Amino acid sequence: MPCIINIETSTKVCSAAVTVDGTVAVQKVCYEGPSHASLLGGYVKELMRFLKDNRLKADAVAVSSGPGSYTGLRIGVSMAKGLCFGLDVPLISVTTTQLLAVEVMFNDSVSEDALLCPMIDARRMEVYSAVYDRALSERVPLGAYIIDGESFKDVLDCNKVVFFGDGSEKCKSVITHPNAVFLPDIVPLAANMLPLSERSFRNCEFEDVAYFQPSYIKEFQATVPKNKVINTGG
């Protein structure tokens, strides 16, 4: 199994972790952000010391690809690219909404048949969101959405849907469907990148280190219509 350096900076939380053989070997997290610029370099230095002390060699670097904060993602991706060039290892990108969904997938309070709807705050009543099943297949495509009382109604009519992420709290008073469940305090963490980054490594799904760019919130808004019609086909 691979040894991967994982970096997550898409929201106010800053985290980094080393995963080895399907386990989290070491992780560093700060929830009191945003303070990525002052923290991430130190975190990576500690991770590199851990690798050296344990005679481990990184096989890849994984980084959150957004959508998320412009500043946060820029810092994380710059660090990840520098590591890839310096260590001569490939770059893996992890979609932030899928990363959020991973934590909820293994939450005992969430029913097995529930769909998962991570929400990233985009101010006002806008969020970046998708709806996934347990295989992380999209039931509603990743996009920018303005939330109202009819949002995600097609899937809510047929399934329990769990809403979470920093954009979900403001939606509780608007999405009142009886099948809507809201789960608090779910944030993207580098340690939870493990199944996604290892899957990408096994499948040789790597990014071009020189040209890779994440999905910054501003760019994502420009490419996804805010009035996008949700059509899930039931």
Pick out its properties.
disordered C terminus, 234 residues, five-stranded mixed beta sheet, alpha/beta, 10 strands, 28% helix
Most strands sheet: 5 strands, mixed
Low-confidence stretches: 225-234
Question: Helix fraction?
Answer: 25-40%
Q: Estimate the global geometry from the Cα principal axes.
A: globular
Q: Looking across the biggest beta sheet, what order are the strands in? A: 3-2-1-4-5
What series of H and E elements makes up the topology?
Answer: EEEHEHEHEEEHEEHH
The secondary structure category is alpha/beta
Give the DSSP E fraction (strand runs of 2 or more residues).
25-35%
Q: What is the gyration radius calculated from CA atoms?
A: 18 Å
- Total number of β-strand segments? 10
Number of helices: 6
Output mean pLDDT.
91
In whole angstroms, the N-to-C terminal distance is: 39 Å
How would you summarize what this structure contains?
By secondary structure, the chain is an alpha/beta fold.
Q: Can you put this structure into words, describing what you see?
A:
The chain is 28% helix and 26% strand. The protein contains 6 helices and 10 strands; from the N terminus they run βββαβαβαβββαββαα. The strands form 2 sheets. It has a 5-stranded mixed beta sheet, with helices on both faces. It has a 5-stranded mixed beta sheet with strand order 8-7-6-9-10, with helices on one face. A hairpin with a 5-residue loop joins β7 and β8. It is globular.
